[in-house]
Amino acid sequence: MFLGDTEISRLREHKLTLLRRERIGFVFQSFNLVPSLTAKDNILLPFRLAGKRPDRDWMRDVVHRTGLTERLGHRPAELSGGQQQRVAVARALVTRPEVVFADEPTGALDLSSGQDVLRLLRDVVDGTGQTLIMVTHDPGAAAYADRVLFLADGTLVDAMENPTPQRVADRMARMGA
User: Fold this and answer.
1) Helix (H, G, I), strand (E, B), or coil: what is residue 136?
2) CATH topology for 14-135?
């Protein structure tokens, strides 16, 4: 298994940790923000852990894209669920990873906030060329993707280009039958 030109299946734990920190971004359903840190500090946490400095221009661009400019001084408890997820998205993007993995990124959000996050992710992919792999059971969320892969028991069973919520839902229904 490769990430870019790096074979990752034989890497030892320390090298895998560095690879995850430097080349992969993660967005989790439950946000995984540090409650005692501000939004800005949560976004910059990967740099703090790596002992590196962020690219300030890119940081400003990410914060602007995520709509967090006015919320950087707030702690997670002072933010809505959608804002917390946007902080998580910003944290995943700020290191300029080769790929971002999003695990049910709208699962803990109301419909409106979820759609805001999906539009944000779509905008990031379109605006930056970022590769995003999202796991979801929501046909509406899946329809934001360029391509949907259907898995059953860990096996790829189908793929769909240019998905719509109805086409994804229909295919998922056939899988359950």
Assistant:
1) coil
2) Rossmann fold (3.40.50)
